Structures are given as C-alpha cells and as structure tokens.
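Board notes (copied after class):
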Amino acid sequence: MVVPGCPRCGRELMAFEVLRRGSLWGGGGPRPRSGESWWECPGCDWLGVRRPPDGPLRPMRRLEGAEETCVFCGFEGNVAGVPWRAEDGGWRDWIVCLSCGRSNQRRVGPPDGPARADE
C-alpha cells in the first residue's frame, strides 16, 4: 500500500481503522468499515478518508461542541466531510462517528441558505 503525503503539511500520513460497533447484521464483534481507508497526519492533525480505498483522499473535519457527540453511541467522535449541494438544492454533508463507526448524511443548510465558502 502506498502511504499518501499530507495535503496540508506534506508529512507521511498514518492509517487507522474506524470500527463498526453495535447493530451488526449477524452479530459478531467490531469490524472495520468496508470500502474505506482512513488517514491522519501526526504533524498537523489533518484527517481524511478514501472511498474506495484506492480512490482520492477526501478531507474530513473534526466537529466540536454538540456536533461532536454521536447520536447513536453518545461518545465524542463525529467528523464530517465537505458539504455538497443536494438535488433538492439544500446542503448536505457526510458525518461519521470515529467511536462507533456509524455514519449518515445530514442537512447543513436550506436551498437558499448560506453557500459553501468556496462557492
């Protein structure tokens, strides 16, 4: 496996696993989220994911405050991807709990609400 460099500072990224815990079909213990590889930078704290594992690195941001707490497990571990405009015109992002491994899309803005900073 080729270890990518950090997009922010250039240091070598470190791989880590995000494990699914609870609500697993067929029972069993925690297991890695399928189809993803997770990376973080030991120097600048950059965080990202590849979906699929050989796809492009996609940045994730660590959430703070109430957003950081997972609605499924109650632990502080939520991270979110870059927002995108959905078909209905509203803004969405992808949220993942690094503690329990559950994920979901969420609404982050109405169709005529605030646009992304890069738009």
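Comment from the instructor: The CA atoms of residues 1 and 70 lie 31 Å apart. The chain is about 0% helix and 35% strand.
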